[in-house]
Design a protein that fits this description.
- The chain has 463 residues and is mainly beta.
- The chain has two domains: 247 residues, no CATH class; 197 residues, Thrombin, subunit H, CATH 2.40.10.
- The strands form five sheets. Strands 1, 5, 6, 7, 8, 9, 10, 11, 12 and 13 form a ten-stranded mixed β-sheet that branches.
- Strand 6 and strand 7 form a beta hairpin.
- The termini are far apart.
């Protein structure tokens, strides 16, 4: 007789932290009458006397998730927060379709079981709760892993990490009252195996390729299933960080160095400075025409014209390795090329036909905490171009040695590289990053690159 198949919301566990509380049992024996029994614990001594044959603890290493894994201690970063910046490029669950990944126990003392089947194909786990677990383990060992695009202010990464969750096993059980003591507990256990690939941007040959395992057994505990799964992911990440071959690669890579002026292509950019005589509100129609949407091979970001001859600033993490991109100017799409970039500051200079669009005027003075700011960009979707949000300059911060403005103005993925204006309608900064909760909600702590630093980074600092 075929065992029934159970499908459960596993994606919710990994993506949105919805937990399943459960309990379990893993012993079987036959009583004096030949009846088969299952239980979470061995039978009482009195019952065991009449058992036919020995009490058997069910083997949980094949169809079950209770796989024993040797845990390695992560090798701490000897640079105390230095070393390369690492970005989690891809994080996918890839166990296939119609794959049995474990057992769901039910009934009295969880004596009945059925298969748990995964049938949702490939799931993108980047920017989800599961990815945050990886980022936390790297951070605990002293390494800089950006687990999502907007979870922390960071310059462009030096290295890119791919993680494929290739094997995922999970046993769960509904909560039950155990006979004899009336105790109700929950439990689950999980095993994962991840395949990791580390590479430099734009290079096909990986610097590192390997796998690591992780497991956690919360079978007779009150832990929620999501916690058990996350602990297995944490263990697998620690085992990666305990792999000397992987850590040697990290320690052998130097962070990107800002290029000198001589390394720039010869480009003449003429910027104009404002006189503080206008206002954003009265000039908003003109100022919105200085903002552009930057469309790349991997998505989109924002930018701002600084020279009507066709030069615009954006972020390096928007264009990444692309040498050519597209710029959307109102209803027109034009080809653009990346002519200068500075990874440390996260600023790139684009050149294209501006089609008569005006350039922004640069502010001569910096804003002060409490001053109003206006952020313009293309958040989330290209259909939302020229979105304006308002806030204030909350503070001036030093982040990883870089001077950034902090603002409470709303900034979302897609805003990166877009202009930030003061109350006079003059360009004071570029959007670069924001802090978000694990569920994706903005924490109203967003970061901006001062325009003077942005211009200097790409060799534009003369009037």
């Amino acid at each position: 007789m075929m065992r029934p198949v159970v499908r459960i919301a596993l994606e919710a566990i990994l993506v949105s932290c919805a937990g399943i509380v459960c309990a379990g049992g893993a012993y079987k024996w036959r009583d004096a009458d030949g009846n088969l029994h299952f239980s979470d614990q061995p039978p009482l001594a009195e019952a065991a006397k009449g058992a036919q044959g020995a009490v058997e603890e069910i083997a949980l290493s094949g169809d079950f998730a209770d796989v024993k894994v040797t845990n390695k201690l992560p090798i701490a970063n000897p640079r105390h927060g230095g070393g390369p910046r690492i970005a989690l490029e891809h994080f996918d669950l890839r166990v296939g379709n119609n794959v049995t990944i474990g057992r769901k126990f039910s009934g009295n003392d969880c004596s009945e079981s059925s298969d748990v089947q995964w049938n949702d194909g490939v799931v993108d786990l980047k920017n989800k709760a599961a990815a945050a677990v990886l980022g936390e383990r790297f951070h605990n060992a002293g390494y800089r892993l950006q687990a999502s695009e907007d979870d922390a202010p960071s310059a462009t990464a030096d290295l890119y990490l791919d993680a494929d969750l290739a094997t995922f096993k999970l046993d769960i059980c509904d909560s039950r009252v155990y006979s004899g003591n009336g105790q109700t507990v929950g439990g689950s256990r999980s095993y994962v195996r991840l395949h990791w690939t580390l590479r430099r941007d734009g290079e096909d040959k990986p610097l590192y390729s390997g796998s690591s395992e992780g497991a956690f057994n919360g079978w007779r505990s009150t832990r929620e299933t999501k916690d058990v799964v996350f602990k297995a992911l944490a263990a697998a990440t620690d085992n990666l960080l305990g792999d000397k071959a992987f850590v040697d690669v990290l320690n052998g890579i130097s962070a990107q160095v800002t290029p000198s002026r001589e390394q720039f292509n010869e480009v003449k950019v003429a910027v104009a400075y404002g006189d503080s005589g206008g206002s954003f509100r009265t000039r908003s129609e003109e100022l919105l025409r200085t903002a552009v949407t930057v469309r790349t091979s991997r998505g989109h970001g924002s930018g701002v014209l600084i020279d009507a001859a066709g030069y615009a600033l954006t972020n390096v993490h928007v264009v990444r390795a692309d040498e050519e991109v597209q710029v959307i100017l109102g209803d027109e799409v034009v080809d653009a090329r990346v002519v200068r970039s500075d990874r440390k500051t996260d600023v790139a200079l684009l050149q294209f036909d501006a089609k008569g669009h005006p350039a922004a005027h640069i502010a001569r003075s910096e804003p002060h905490p409490g001053d109003p700011l206006y952020v313009v960009g293309t958040p989330l979707s290209i259909k939302l171009s020229n979105t304006v949000t308002q806030g204030i300059l909350s503070a001036v911060r030093e982040v990883e040695g870089e001077r950034l403005y902090q603002t409470d103005a709303a900034i979302n993925p897609g805003n990166s590289g877009g202009p930030v204006f003061n109350d006079a309608g003059e360009l004071v900064a570029l959007s670069v990053s924001g802090l978000f909760s694990k569920s994706g909600n903005s924490l109203n702590i967003n970061y901006l690159i001062p325009v003077a630093r942005a211009l200097a980074a790409v060799g534009v600092n003369d009037e």
